[in-house]
């Protein structure tokens, strides 16, 4: 019994160590961290003696997606989103539909056994880009904030659109028939209903949190919020993704009146750590699916995934250059950054085993995701350099803003801040002495240290 438990535990510990090494390597090579994480999972999947790791789709849909979608939606810039709402909708609706049909027709020609319904099921799986991939990859580059807002907004919206299209296509495959009118009606019902439900949940949560000013209550409540939006909406046959996104956007825009400063500091630290852990685990698990995906086919094709990936990239680039009004470097980066991720794989995994050519759809989905992360994400930092987005652009603007804020502080107050820093340093030294001499308990020392941390954080920047 102990031996049976040891291997999964050792694999989990090894993957955790590999995730830390991936972050370290990403910082030194400028290759986005998700690339290393997926490759780590892929290597683990082919190591002899390691048990096959299966990723149930419900784990992605109900475990990972709600908090990750909520966290991404919560920090969407209201000003940037309003300024770019046309671009976001053109990509989330128009480009997703164009990709679905393009991949569907190509899949139908490549794999005749798929049939029309199966081919468009593949298109629905690969139609939406992945918000986790977009946020993780773009967040580690020098891409301007406006481009990040467009890509994240597109990914957050088109996920809900894509899953609705996926459910319609899956119904068509299982029933062997399809009604355009019924499909459009279901699309509107599921999408609009999901958004309305998410806003309703957000409104209730806002009323509760304005009356609670305790971090030990507010932070767990913030963690439960995305699940409160996602799971009931899904059970009501609405879009859980759009419900979670709407909830996150609403609360993010209203967050100024919800949090006290001290609670905000703790909440931000909690969510930063949580999203990093969930993202790392998700990308590693994504890579570990290689063995089960390939074993589902007798003779995996290398050229079919290449064609599907090329079609995805070509459709996106053509759409950006033809339908998005912007400078051509911005349009190229937007076109290049359309990566697929765990959501597409989870959708493919959820296809019933009874569906013909399920293994082919799963294989093409996985290889397309892998190709996107490697082929698109790896050269992205250098493409940004070549197109005039050098590293440090964002940090330079932040530094300039910090200098302007500091200039607003009178010299007398800046001197007081320096004196306060010296006083806090003296208080820290005295607190360390009291703790070392046993004159104060460890718990009390931690509480006082936290107060000093908050006081020092509140001081104006140097």
Give a concise summary.
The protein has 462 residues and is mostly helical. It contains 21 helices and no strands.
Describe this structure in words.
The protein is mainly α and 462 residues long. The protein has helices at residues 2-29, 33-46, 57-74, 78-83, 85-110, 115-126, 131-138, 145-175, 180-209, 215-235, 240-253, 261-288, 290-295, 303-323, 328-336, 342-349, 358-376, 380-386, 393-407, 411-436, 442-457. α5 runs antiparallel to α6 (115-126), α7 packs antiparallel against α8 (145-175) and α20 runs antiparallel to α21 (442-457). The protein is globular and about 75 Å long. The model has no long low-confidence stretch (mean pLDDT 83).
Largest sheet: none
Radius of gyration: 24 Å
Helix and strand content put the structural class at mainly alpha
Q: Assign an overall shape.
A: globular
On the 0 to 100 scale, the average pLDDT is: 83
- CA-CA gap between termini: 58 Å
Q: Assess the beta-strand content as a share of residues.
A: under 5%
